C-alpha cells in the first residue's frame, strides 16, 4: 500500500451481501448429514431385531399392536427437539434486521456530523492562498477548525455507540454459532432416525413379501399398519429435516450479514478517526497552531485496540498523513480525500444493507412458509405421543440405548 | 420337588444380602426420613415453629403467673405453692400437647394441584413421604430416586423465570401426574396389587410408570439447565471473537 501513488486512498471496501437461502425440498435432505458406517451398522441391527421381534408376534395380539405403536411415535423426540429449535431461530433474521437498524441510525448520525465538518462545504479554505506562506483568512480557518473541537464529543459518543453495536453483532454471531452447533447435532439425530425408518421400510417390504405365501394375514397386517406408519414417519422426519436444514442455512446468512456489517462499522470508525487526525495535521500546516482534539486522541488508542483488523492500516495512514500534509502543497485536498474515504465507506454500507435486507426478507418468507408447512406434521407427531410408553421394548427404536 | 433348597443357595444368599442392605438403610421404617432436601427444610421450619411456640407459651405463662401473684400477694400464703404447681402442670400440658400434634400436615391432592410450581416440589416430597408405607419395595427405590431428582429440579426452579414454559410442564408432571399415579395405585385393594391385570400386575405397572416419570423429571431438569449451558457457550464464543486469535468471521 505504501507504494501506491495515492497513499491516503484506503483500499476500497467491498461488503458482499449474502445470497438468500433457497427452498430445500424434503427429497433433497436425506443423506445431507453424513453417518459413519459403524453408526449405520448399529442402526441397521436395531431395525433387524425390531422386525424379527415384530414378525414373531401374532398379527392380532396386543403385543403386535404395541410394536406398531412404537412405529407411530418413532423419532418423536428428535422431531420435537428440532422443531423447538426452528421455532426459536425463526425470529433471528428479523431481529438481525432490527439490529442493522440500530447500527444504521448511528451511521446516519455520524454522517451528518461529519458532513458538517466537510472542508468542501466551507469554501473558505482555499489552498492557493497558502502558497504565500501567510494565512489570508486566518480567522475563518480558525473558526473552521474550532468546529472540530466542538464536534469531537459528539463524534466520540457516536463511535462509542458504534463500538457497542459491533459488540452486539459479535454476541449475536456467538449465539448463532452455538445454535448452529446444536442444530447440526439435531440434524444428525434426525438423519439417524431417517436412516432407521428407511431401512425399516425396506425390511418390512421384504418380510411382508416372504410372508405372502406362508401367512398372508400377517403380511397384510404388516403392510397395512407397520409399513404404512413407517412411511408416514419417514415423511415426517424428512419434512422436519428440510425445515431444519433451511434454518441452518438461514442462520449462516444472518451470521455472514453480521460479519460484513462489523467490517463496515470498523471501517467507518477507522476512516472517521483518520479524517480527524488528518484535520489535526492540516490545521497545524495551515494555521501553524496545534488543534487539540483530546477526546479523539484518547479514542485513537482505544479504536486501534478495538479494531484490530484495521489498526495497522490506521498506523500506516498516520505516517502518510504526516508526510503528505507536511510536504505537500495541498493539505486541504488531503483532508478532503480523508472525508471522501468516510463517504465511500458509508455508501458501500448503504448499498450492502439494501441488498442484504432483501436477501434476509426473502429468507424469512421461505423459512416461515416451510415452518408453517412442517407444523402439520409436528402436530401429528405430538398427537401420537399418547401411544408412547410401550414398556416391553424400551429404546428399541430410539437413539439412546 | 427333587431339588433341595441348597440348589437355590445363590438366590437365597442374594435375597439375604438385599434384605440386609434394605434393613440397614432403614427398611420399611423409613416414613420418618425426609425424601429430599426441600421437604427436610419444610420439616425443620415446622420444628422451629413449634420450639418457638413452646418458648413463647412458657414466657406467657410465667408472665401471667407473675401478674396473678402480684395482684393476690399477701392474701394467702398458699399462693406461692399454687403458683409452682401451676407452672409444672402448664409445662407438662404444653409439652404433651406439642408432642401429640402431627409432625407436619401432609398436603392434599388439591393443594398439590393448585400449588405454585416453585413451592410444589417441597409439597410433593412431603406428600410422597406420607405415601411410602403403601408402596411396594421396587417402587420405593424409584420414589427415593425421584426424591433426589426433585431436589435438583427445585434448584433450577428457584432460578427460573415465572413465565418459563417449563414451569407448566413441571406443575403437570409433579403436581398432577405423579400424585395421580400413586393415588390410582393405592385405590387398588392390597390383595389385588400383585395379580396380573392387562398384561402386568399393578405393582409392575406402578414401578414402570414411576420410572417413566423419573426419566421425564430428569429431562425437564436438563431442559431447564440448557439455557444456562447455552449462555456460557455463547459467552465464551463472544470473548473468543472479541479478544481471541480468530477473526470475526
Short structural summary:
The complex is a heterodimer of chains A (401) and B (249). Chain A is mainly α. Helix content of chain A is 77%, strand content 0%.
Give the helix/strand class of chain A.
mainly alpha
Oligomer state of the chains in this structure: heterodimer
Any idea what the radius of gyration of chain A is? 33 Å
Number of strands of chain A: 0
Could you state the order of secondary-structure elements of chain B as H and E?
HHHHHHHH
Total of helices of chain A: 10
Q: What is the SS-derived class of chain B?
A: mainly alpha
* Beta-strand content estimate of chain B: under 5%
Low-confidence stretches of chain B: none
Shape of chain B: extended
Radius of gyration of chain B: 28 Å
Total strand segments of chain B: 0
Nearest-integer average pLDDT of chain B: 81
The helical percent of chain A reads over 70%
Largest interface: A-B, 18 and 17 residues
Distance between the termini of chain A: 61 Å
* Shape assignment of chain A: rod-shaped
Q: Could you give the order of the helices and strands of chain A?
A: HHHHHHHHHH
Amino acid at each position: 500500500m505504501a507504494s501506491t501513488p495515492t497513499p491516503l486512498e484506503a483500499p476500497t471496501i467491498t461488503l458482499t451481501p449474502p445470497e438468500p437461502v433457497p427452498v430445500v425440498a424434503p427429497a433433497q435432505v436425506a443423506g445431507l448429514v453424513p453417518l459413519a458406517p459403524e453408526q449405520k451398522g448399529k442402526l441397521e441391527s436395531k431395525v433387524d431385531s425390531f422386525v424379527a421381534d415384530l414378525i414373531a408376534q401374532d398379527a392380532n395380539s396386543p403385543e403386535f399392536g404395541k410394536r406398531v405403536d412404537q412405529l407411530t411415535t418413532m423419532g418423536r423426540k428428535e422431531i420435537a427437539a428440532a422443531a423447538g429449535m426452528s421455532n426459536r431461530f425463526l425470529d433471528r433474521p428479523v431481529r438481525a434486521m432490527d439490529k442493522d437498524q440500530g447500527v444504521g441510525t448511528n451511521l446516519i448520525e455520524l454522517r451528518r456530523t461529519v458532513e458538517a465538518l466537510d472542508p468542501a462545504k466551507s469554501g473558505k479554505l482555499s489552498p492557493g492562498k497558502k502558497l504565500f506562506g501567510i494565512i489570508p483568512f486566518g480567522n475563518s480557518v480558525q473558526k473552521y477548525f474550532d468546529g472540530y473541537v466542538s464536534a469531537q464529543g459528539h463524534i466520540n459518543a457516536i463511535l462509542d455507540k458504534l463500538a457497542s453495536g459491533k459488540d452486539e453483532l459479535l454476541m449475536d454471531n456467538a449465539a448463532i454459532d452455538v445454535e448452529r452447533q446444536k442444530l447440526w447435532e439435531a440434524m444428525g439425530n434426525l438423519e439417524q432416525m431417517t436412516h432407521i425408518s428407511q431401512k425399516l421400510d425396506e425390511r418390512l417390504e421384504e418380510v411382508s413379501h416372504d410372508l405372502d405365501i406362508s401367512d398372508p394375514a400377517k403380511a397384510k397386517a404388516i403392510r397395512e399398519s407397520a409399513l404404512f406408519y413407517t412411511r408416514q414417519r419417514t415423511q415426517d422426519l424428512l419434512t422436519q429435516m428440510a425445515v431444519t436444514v433451511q434454518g441452518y442455512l438461514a442462520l449462516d446468512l444472518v451470521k455472514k450479514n453480521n460479519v460484513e456489517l462489523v467490517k463496515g462499522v470498523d471501517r467507518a470508525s477507522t476512516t472517521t478517526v483518520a479524517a480527524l487526525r488528518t484535520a489535526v495535521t492540516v490545521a497545524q500546516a495551515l494555521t501553524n497552531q496545534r488543534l487539540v482534539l483530546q477526546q479523539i486522541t484518547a479514542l485513537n488508542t482505544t479504536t486501534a485496540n478495538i479494531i484490530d483488523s484495521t489498526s495497522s492500516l490506521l498506523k500506516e495512514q498516520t505516517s502518510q498523513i504526516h508526510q503528505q500534509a507536511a510536504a505537500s502543497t495541498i493539505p486541504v485536498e488531503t483532508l478532503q480525500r480523508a472525508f471522501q474515504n468516510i463517504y465511500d465507506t458509508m455508501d458501500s454500507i448503504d448499498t450492502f444493507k439494501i441488498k442484504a435486507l432483501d436477501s434476509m426478507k426473502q429468507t424469512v418468507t421461505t423459512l416461515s412458509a416451510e415452518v408453517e408447512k412442517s407444523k402439520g406434521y409436528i402436530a401429528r407427531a405430538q398427537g401420537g405421543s399418547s401411544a408412547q410408553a410401550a414398556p416391553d421394548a424400551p429404546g428399541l427404536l430410539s437413539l439412546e440405548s | 420337588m427333587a431339588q433341595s433348597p441348597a440348589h437355590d443357595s445363590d438366590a437365597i444368599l442374594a435375597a439375604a444380602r438385599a434384605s440386609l442392605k434394605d434393613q440397614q438403610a432403614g427398611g420399611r421404617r423409613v416414613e420418618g426420613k425426609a425424601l429430599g432436601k426441600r421437604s427436610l427444610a419444610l420439616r425443620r421450619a415446622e420444628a422451629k415453629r413449634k420450639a418457638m411456640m413452646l418458648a413463647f407459651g412458657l414466657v406467657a405463662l410465667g408472665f401471667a403467673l407473675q401478674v396473678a401473684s402480684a395482684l393476690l400477694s399477701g392474701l394467702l400464703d398458699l399462693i406461692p405453692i399454687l403458683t409452682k404447681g401451676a407452672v409444672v402442670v402448664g409445662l407438662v400440658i404444653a409439652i404433651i400437647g406439642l408432642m401429640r400434634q402431627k409432625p407436619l400436615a401432609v398436603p392434599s391432592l388439591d393443594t398439590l394441584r393448585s400449588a405454585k410450581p416453585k413451592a410444589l416440589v417441597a409439597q410433593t416430597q412431603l406428600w410422597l413421604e406420607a405415601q411410602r408405607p403403601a408402596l411396594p419395595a421396587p417402587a420405593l427405590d424409584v420414589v427415593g430416586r425421584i426424591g433426589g431428582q426433585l431436589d435438583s429440579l427445585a434448584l433450577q426452579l428457584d432460578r427460573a423465570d415465572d413465565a418459563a414454559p417449563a414451569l407448566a410442564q413441571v406443575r403437570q408432571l409433579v403436581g398432577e401426574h405423579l400424585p395421580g399415579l400413586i393415588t390410582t395405585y393405592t385405590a387398588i385393594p392390597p390383595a389385588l396389587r400383585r395379580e396380573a391385570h392387562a398384561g402386568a400386575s399393578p405393582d409392575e405397572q406402578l414401578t414402570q410408570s414411576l420410572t417413566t416419570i423419573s426419566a421425564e423429571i430428569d429431562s425437564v431438569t436438563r431442559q431447564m439447565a440448557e439455557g444456562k449451558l447455552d449462555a456460557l457457550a455463547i459467552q465464551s464464543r463472544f470473548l473468543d471473537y472479541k479478544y481471541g486469535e480468530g477473526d470475526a468471521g
